[in-house]
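User: Can you predict the 3D structure for this chain?
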Amino acid sequence: MPVKILMPALSPTMTEGTLARWLIGEGDAIHSGDIIAEIETDKATMEVEAVEEGKLGKILVAEGTEGVAVNNVIALLLEEDEDESSLEGIDVSAVSSDNDATIPPEVTPEHATTTVADVPPAPLSVSGSIPPVARVENRIIASPLARRMASQAGLELTGVLGTGPNGRIVKSDVEAALSAGDILAVSPTAAPVPTTAEQLPYEPEFKITSLSTMRKTIARRLTESKQQVPHFYLTVDCEIDDLLDLRKTLNDKADGSYRLSVNDLVIKSAAIALRRVPNANASWTDEGVKLYKSADISVAVAIEGGLITPVVRQADNKGLEMISREMKELSERARDGKLGPEEYQGGTFSISNLGMYGIKEFSAVINPPQACILAVGAGEKRPVVKDGALAVATVMSCTLSVDHRAVDGAVGAEYLSAFKRLIEEPLSMLL
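Assistant: Here is the predicted structure, written as structure tokens:
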């Protein structure tokens, strides 16, 4: 019997993707490990390797097709001694949701226009006794089909019992919940702003740019973060003249072998500050607050179609030269769409720097499950008071967005104070 080639889940949050390109054609031989297609995920364009050997019998999803759900059959593989006649009568519907693989949790970060990780839905009041909800970490586990059915029916999955593998919510669970009618509907809200692409009365002419999988994911996650995570904000002004002098000295001594940026020094300072204030290096779960043992800094990088946050692992233990080299390499790989999941997942703290655009100050959106993200503005000459006299200094405004569930105001303030000391006394990074 022909083998079904399925739309793979290439990122932990991926429920659908775009089949960007087929690298083989019908009738071509396939060997295990061959690259057969390119899939655009919510993070990047990634290559798909074959795990079975045989001959490509039939392509079911044409390249360029958007919104292909995970586990949909995209092609059929003929095994040895099979021919095209074996393709007749094959069921090419999506694989049963009962067989879906469990979706692992996502760990990523970002600012007001950054990709953020999935956030659990807000609790919903229910009548009667409701069984426990299937979760990975804090996320509800449900198949793409189950999520789609629930969304179309206006059903929250919070109170639905999952009977699939590992408590996964599947199609039959949604059908049972709908038929039982014991889960309360979501409370009515104010009428939404129209999102139709149709031209509204008195609206000027416009053109529509299609939404990539990444852009859709950004929109969804940012909405979830702002709705479900209690943000508060702390801002501090840092004088960076000594830091700029140190940077110049180090770059001059490097003789072109490397070139430090202000952002490299910010990454290092942010990581050391986490070591000194470990309670800020945290994330929220329903079971308790996670306190991370390493300072893995996610740094927002603008790419075509959105943003991604490659991670500098254990940045507190790395030298400035290593951080600089690593950040440049990660940024290049991000813009080329070549980052692997291990390179952009699992950060514990995020940095978003818009100073290069001349932005003085801004607030970033938290990237769950992380509890903090630091928004860094541009360094600019400002009047300051030193020893009772007016002076001029180069000042950089930094705003910390904090998840109040995991980090209290005093802890956030303590962290920013430690960060400010490191920025203003950069030689203390060596201590």
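The chain has eight helices and 20 strands. The first strand starts at residue 3 and ends at 6.
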